[in-house]
Amino acid sequence: MTSAEFEFTGGATYGVMNATWPFAALRVNKNELELNISLLGNLHFRPEDVVSITKLGMSFFSSGIRIKHKVKGYYSTVIFKSFTNADSILQQIQQTGFLDNKVPLPHYDDTVITSMQEKGGFAMKIPAAIAIVVIWNLLFLPNFVHSFQNNKVPFIGMHLGLSFMLLLSLTLLISEPFRDLLLKEGRTLKHIKTFVLFMILISALILGISFLLPQF
């Protein structure tokens, strides 16, 4: 007897990129394995896409599983890390029936997974990501100018950059049209929500602290 679905929260390694807990979520049912790593990747696998899922020893505090796959366009290194014992994760994956499922997927499910795989793992549109990086660096220019001219504006670049990131994150959180503009088709708030909330918290916290510090 198989269970319908299970989900774990943890961390992940995708290619050379790493995400710590709680920025990754592993969801498995009979027809699909999904590893969501927020902005870094949203990976979808059919049973036929997965060559093997093996236990990976990590540390005393965490363990993990390695997903060996044959999806073109995905990095070969796909690892999910969790505080839950890897044997338990493997057992629950086995219980879903995913690993033993040889039945062709329903046409709609197969089409959706194929579409998501073709878009690649990264959640954001590449031009949007480039634009954000460029704007971020431009906003920090006053700090670089200060370092050469010794003008008394040490925090203005940081304030501008963090304010931009805070506004960007808040808008992503509340505006669906804005998310559609930045995210690839098929990506939704659930795929990036943990990261967005983290950026709001960190940006607001650092901004608040910086305003309390003396200006040099």
UniProtKB/TrEMBL annotation:
Domain of life, per UniProt, equals Bacteria
What are the TM regions of this chain, as residue ranges? 122-141, 153-174, 195-213
Which keywords does the record carry?
Membrane, Transmembrane, Transmembrane helix
Recorded protein name is Uncharacterized protein
Q: Which organism is it from?
A: Mucilaginibacter lappiensis
